Amino acid sequence: MRVFITGGTGLIGTAVVAELLGHGHTVLALARSDDSAKAVEAAGAEALRGSLADLDAVRAGAAGADGVIHLAFANDFSSPEALGQAIAEETAAITTVGAALTGSDRPFVVVSGTPWISGRASTEADPLPTDGPVGGRGRTVTATLALASRGVRVSAVRLPRTVHNEGAGGFAGLLTTMARQSGVSGYPGDGAQRWPAVHALDAAVLFRLALEKAEPGTSWHAVDDEGDAVRDIAAVIGRRLGLPVRSVPAETFGPLGPVFAANQPASSAHTRQALGWEPTHPSLLADLENIQP
Question: Gene3D superfamilies given for it (predicted)?
């Protein structure tokens, strides 16, 4: 299968490209810079120059592919306005891909976060949140899944709060960055809230399985660790960096403060049973031991 991918040079995208190539697919990856294009080509894929905001490039990539995986996101959490702009850019790109694939029965795998449900771990059957700081992403993915009725084999892979590799990535990676900057390994509230996690190489396998096997309109959870207490995550970070560990105000985390403070474990039982997905790489707390002081 010739697969068009956005976000193919990020932590997750790099793993997905390698996974696809390793299983006989060819890959066309959107590349917004010369360096990104070189990285794509060095990995064995073909580069298509353009950014997520370049809708003509996005349209061309999708139109010429047998399937599409969308991963790109600006990841600008510096302010509510910047986050809103990133979500709007992503929505326009996803809508463009959906239009290009309508009526073709080709697969389109989109990405979202796992939802959070009061009192229990969320499952693949739970709806995505459509309010709050990242509610716009939930609304976009929910609308995109409706393309299943318009001849698109669309599915959603829901990623946990932390997708990691060698101690880097996701919310835990943000905690590490903030700890280096502030001199404190901080966590919001009492730190008892739980965040799910998965290794990037395991997540990549699920993206491939969804592309190859998922039924239209389905959602899947790329979750290995159902939920680690945030204070335990912060404790490993603090120990590795030689920094004190303590609670800090949720406002410390900017627009993501309410999300960081939420208890949000997630299950992947249905995903494992239905798609035969089984994580094999290190858990988050073990992988954080790779953080260098």
Answer: NAD(P)-binding Rossmann-like Domain
Residues 2-162+197-225: name the CATH superfamily.
NAD(P)-binding Rossmann-like Domain (3.40.50.720)
Contact 24, 42 (CB under 8 A): no
Mean pLDDT computed over every residue of the chain: 95
- CB-CB contact of 7 with 31 (8 Å): no
Q: In this structure, what are the phi and psi dihedrals at residue 7, rounded to the nearest 5 degrees?
A: 75, 30
pLDDT category at 76 given cuts 50, 70, 90 is low
> How confident is the model at residue 1, as a pLDDT?
97
Going from N- to C-terminal start, the domains of the chain cover: 2-162+197-225, 166-195+227-265+283-290
Q: Is it the case that residue 255 has pLDDT exceeding 90?
A: no
Q: What confidence score (pLDDT) does residue 79 get?
A: 80
Percent with pLDDT over 70 in the chain: 99
CA dist., res. 238 & res. 187, Å (int): 11
Span 146-169, mean pLDDT?
A: 97
Distance between CA atoms of residues 153 and 247, nearest Å: 44
Distance CA 136, CA 142 (A): 10
Given a cut of 90, whether residue 131 has pLDDT beyond it is no
